[in-house]
Design a protein that fits this description.
Blueprint lengths: L23 E9 L10 E6 L5 E5 L5 E8 L1 E8 L5 E9 L4 E3 L2 E2 L8 E4 L13 E5 L1 H6 L17 E2 L17 E2 L8 E4 L2 E2 L18 E9 L12 E6 L7 E9 L8 H4 L4 H4 L5 E13 L13 E20 L4 H4 L41 H8 L15 E21 L4 E9 L2 E5 L12 E5 L2 E12 L2 E11 L3 E5 L32 E4 L12 E18 L2 E17 L16 E4 L11 H7 L1 E8 L5 E19 L2 E12 L3 E2 L6 E2 L11 E2 L6 E3 L6 E2 L7 H6 L21 E15 L3 E11 L19 E8 L26 E14 L2 E13 L15 H4 L5 H4 L2
Parallel strand pairs: 1-7, 1-8, 6-9, 13-16, 27-30
Antiparallel strand pairs: 1-4, 2-3, 2-5, 5-6, 10-15, 11-12, 13-14, 15-16, 17-18, 18-19, 19-20, 20-21, 20-22, 21-24, 22-23, 23-26, 24-25, 25-28, 26-28, 28-29, 29-32, 30-31, 31-41, 32-33, 32-34, 33-39, 35-38, 36-37, 39-40, 40-42, 42-43
């Protein structure tokens, strides 16, 4: 495999640096006289009306001009030529990626005379064929956004569907969960001033909710975007932040929401519980902050006209205090002592029918449905006692528990920006955003019943450095450096839970199968009972540290009526993943502290009731695993592109683009990955599976499992000496197990034609690739042999340490052996009509055809339908190919 290496500078702020591209627009057009003849040699000046920065060019022999690489803002455009009156058009609002077509009619006369046009006559129409739109600063200021999370304003644009725009989500890392033009919600990317803000661990989240007061506009690219935009096949959300101007501006604000102002809900009023019927749920929300921006100058000495250096700084704090609740089915106090007489009532709320428990030693019912105290197993009783007691006075069907926990969430959003115009030809820009988020999660992501409560810390950072050099009116270079980091993030056990979340509180003292490997030794096991709420305490504690680093250089040239842009991006990205298993299939578990199953049937020692089995100490299954090593995911990437915007006529713009991506598969720096590959499986060495239990009785379970490289490195062996036992599992495979896809070529075509002054039609066709994030479900670092795991079948909890540990057929995860990245063909045809200032109507047809999209499937499933029904006494593991 060929390997790409890039030398990246390091910023202490990020841990790993990055480079990216600033979102800019372009103003172009043709200058004509009163006979519609083109006028060459006209001096054109585009001036930003806020900071007064001017950019100059000259019309070519075709009367055509282009002013590329303009920051978002409102501009005036002037034209001067001998023998003509000076022309000035003001109030031109330029959005990111806009290609405004501004035709300039010159009138004969002296240059000292001026013809001025304002945008009261209507906005200039864009000859850009990209589908999507822009949420403007005016919309952001005037619209009330529930929770003040600006990402949800993306739903204002056509083709964006999904989450309700009224979603109250002020402090999450969600990217909005949208579908753009039919694409998948995790197949679009988010950028802040061109800096990648999508996490590497999974594509459905971003690096913090942006501060609304810092956002100048939001560019929504839903499809057919030009070749300089890549990495996603289902759209992009691009935030453009505010900058300082020649005048000082600032504000301070607070948004308040408090339960004191709320009425109680009718459901809570109807509750028999005083804590619910006496008051509304706690929902306190405080969002406050300030902004300040303006020029940096030394009066009378430096930057006297306030045109060189500008700053913008903002702080926002979000404080939430609210209650999180859950319900469940838990055993009664009597059941925990062995008294199941209530179940002899056919109207019992647990099963709605009579349930008789039998003595597994005699096969006869326990008298009165009560287990004698002398038969109760202390460890099994401790498991059952781990469940919370029922809530007095609460019963809804079989549900007898309702809980409420206080939740706190604190977010701080710091944004700084500086624009330095070193000269008329050089512009340096720096922007940083820091959004640390700390919160507790008493119910976490699973069904915990409050038995595991966590504290989360999510540091989120993005940084941008951009330097633009204008060599001539027709040649410009843009070098940008950006990066993001979401580490080191952590999820730790919340000390506030105290004894409730500790196994010793309930008398659980059975020994671990893998002692000394637990991140939180006192964490309770998962518990599954027939007739009760299954308690899943999840894969935490854990930690992670992700990063993306990009170095981008773009060159823009104007040759005749062609605006040519070409450049590339070198990237290094990764994730130091120390989260335990995030997916597991029974009988395995994602809780490293173990998982019990107490079922009504399936064990030769069953009493006929899972809860009674627990008191007798007899479980169906117990699973546990040791510590998963930290997985240092990493990958390099290279993207190259070329784009031609040809103004074929004053009314017709043609776009031709080509993007080429080289994306090696995600691998690790130390080889701590494993997966199963069928081509290395040897049928002659197949393991023997017990047809009754489905467990391995003979042979190696590692048959077909592969490790990257030709053998363990010295570094790997120093941390994982057991790797020396698996030399036969190395087959000279790449770090990510699969070869690099070298043919990822993505052509783009588009056109825009203007009819008269009010109508534009657009069409486009393009091929787009999606660089998927590190998939949390595959978790190749948690595959054997790196993470020891075992399960014990049909045993007693008292003899857990001495019980025969069976070898379970591994639930292996595997990435696609072909490394074909997901792609999509995107095509559209749209028409836009301008009725007047601020009133534009567009309609169109947009299509998206996905190819090689990701999916999860079982490659070792039973091939013939009805196989399990035809073999009811055979475990499915023994029937698999």
């Amino acid at each position: 495999m060929k390997t790409l290496f890039f030398l990246l500078a390091t910023f202490g702020l990020l841990g790993t640096s990055a480079w990216a591209q600033v979102d800019v627009g372009q103003i172009s057009g043709t200058v004509v006289d009163n006979t519609k003849a083109v006028v060459p040699g006209v001096k054109i000046i585009a001036t930003n009306e806020e900071n007064k920065i001017a950019t100059e060019t000259t019309t070519n022999s075709s009367g055509y001009y282009t002013v590329p690489n303009l920051p978002v803002g409102t501009y005036s455009v002037s034209a001067e030529a001998a023998g003509f009156q000076k022309y000035v058009r003001t109030g031109l609002h330029l959005n990111a990626a806009d290609q405004l077509s501004v035709e300039i009619p010159l009138t004969l006369g002296a240059v000292t005379q001026t013809v001025e046009v304002t945008e009261a006559m209507g906005e200039a129409l864009s000859l850009e064929p990209t589908t999507g739109g822009t949420v403007t600063g005016k919309q952001i200021q005037q619209l009330e956004v529930n929770g003040r999370n600006p990402v949800y304003l993306g739903l204002l644009e056509p083709g964006v569907v999904g989450t309700d725009i009224a979603t109250f989500d002020p402090d999450s890392v969600s990217n909005g969960g949208f579908s753009m033009n039919g694409g998948r919600p995790d197949a679009y990317t988010v950028y802040v001033d061109g800096a990648m803000a999508t996490r590497t661990r999974e594509s459905g989240s971003m690096l913090g909710a942006q501060d609304m007061e810092t956002v100048q506009e939001i560019q929504i690219l839903t499809g057919n975007f030009d070749a300089q935009y890549g990495r996603s096949n289902a759209g992009q959300i691009r935030f453009v932040t505010r900058s300082g101007s020649t005048q000082f501006h600032g504000d301070a604000y607070e948004v308040l929401r408090n339960a004191y102002f709320d009425a109680n809900t009718w459901q809570r009023n109807d509750s028999p519980i005083a804590a619910f019927n006496s008051r509304p749920p706690q929902q306190n929300y405080n969002d406050f902050g300030f902004t300040l921006g303006g020029p940096v100058f030394w009066p009378g000495r430096w930057n006297k006209d306030r045109s060189k250096l500008f700053f913008f700084f903002a702080e926002e704090w979000v404080r939430r205090r609210y209650a999180d609740s859950s319900t469940g089915i838990v055993p009664t106090a009597a059941m925990r002592t062995g008294d199941f007489s209530y179940l002899l009532n056919a109207s019992n709320t647990f099963f709605g029918k009579v349930r008789v428990i039998n003595d597994p030693l005699t096969g006869k019912p326990f008298p009165g449905n009560i287990i004698p105290a002398s038969r109760i197993n202390a460890q099994g009783q401790a498991v059952l006692n781990s469940y919370p007691l029922p809530t007095p006075g609460f019963q809804e069907g079989s549900t007898n528990l309702i809980q409420s926990f206080p939740v706190h969430s604190n977010v701080q959003k710091t944004t700084f920006r500086a624009d330095y115009y070193l000269s008329e030809k050089n512009h340096l820009y720096v922007r940083g955003t820091f959004i640390p988020w700390r919160f507790n999660s008493p119910l976490d992501e699973s069904t915990t019943l409050g038995l595991y409560q966590s504290l989360w810390s999510r540091p989120n950072r993005t940084l941008m450095v951009d330097f633009t050099t204008t060599f001539s009116p027709t040649l410009l270079n843009d070098l940008s450096i950006s990066g993001n980091s979401d580490g080191k993030g952590s999820i730790q056990a919340d000390p506030a839970c105290g004894a409730t979340c500790e196994r010793s509180t309930y008398g659980l003292t059975y020994p671990y199968l893998f002692p000394g490997t637990k991140l939180f030794d006192q964490k309770l096991p998962n518990m599954a009972f027939t007739g009760l709420t299954n308690v899943d305490l999840g894969p935490y504690p854990g930690s992670w540290a992700g990063f993306v680093g990009d170095l981008t250089d773009n060159v823009t040239m104007t040759i005749h009526n062609h605006t040519l842009m070409f450049g590339g991006t070198a990237e290094r990205a990764g994730q130091n993943d120390h989260i335990q298993l995030t997916s597991a299939s029974s009988p395995q578990t994602e809780n490293q502290n173990g998982a019990f199953q107490f079922l009504d049937s399936g064990s030769p020692s069953t009493s006929g009731l899972g809860m009674a089995n627990a008191l007798l100490g007899n479980f169906n299954n117990y699973a546990e695993f040791g510590s998963k090593p930290e997985t240092p995911w990493v990958a390099n990437a290279l993207d190259l592109f070329a784009q031609d915007v040809w103004q074929a006529t004053p009314k017709l713009s043609l776009h031709f683009g080509l993007r080429y991506s080289i994306w090696p598969a995600w691998g690790t720096t130390n080889g701590t990955l494993a997966q199963f590959e069928p081509k290395f499986y040897n049928p002659s060495q197949a393991a023997t599976v017990n047809p009754s239990t489905g467990f391995i009785t003979n042979g190696s379970p590692y048959n077909g499992i592969v490790l990257p490289g030709s053998g363990p490195s010295k570094s790997a062996l120093s941390h994982y000496p057991f790797l020396s036992q698996y030399q036969s599992n190395y087959h000279n495979l790449p770090a990510g197990f699969v070869p690099t896809q070298w043919g990822l070529v993505q052509p783009r075509l588009g056109l825009a034609y203007q009819f008269g002054s009010r109508t534009v039609v657009r069409a486009g066709l393009g091929y787009f690739a999606d660089r998927t994030a590190i998939n949390r479900d595959t978790a190749l670092g948690g595959n054997p042999p790196f993470m020891p795991q075992t399960a014990i079948l049909n045993a007693n909890i008292s003899s857990l340490a001495s019980a025969a540990a069976v070898v379970v057929p591994f639930t292996m995860t595997i990435n696609s052996p072909t490394n074909v990245w997901p792609t999509a063909w995107d095509y559209n045809g749209t028409a836009e009509y301008q009725f007047g200032k601020g009133i534009n109507v567009s309609a169109g047809y947009v299509g998206n055809r996905g190819i090689h999209l990701q999916r999860k499937r079982n490659i070792n499933q039973l091939l013939q339908p009805g196989t399990t029904y035809a073999n009811p006494t055979v475990n499915p593991n023994a029937l698999r190919p």
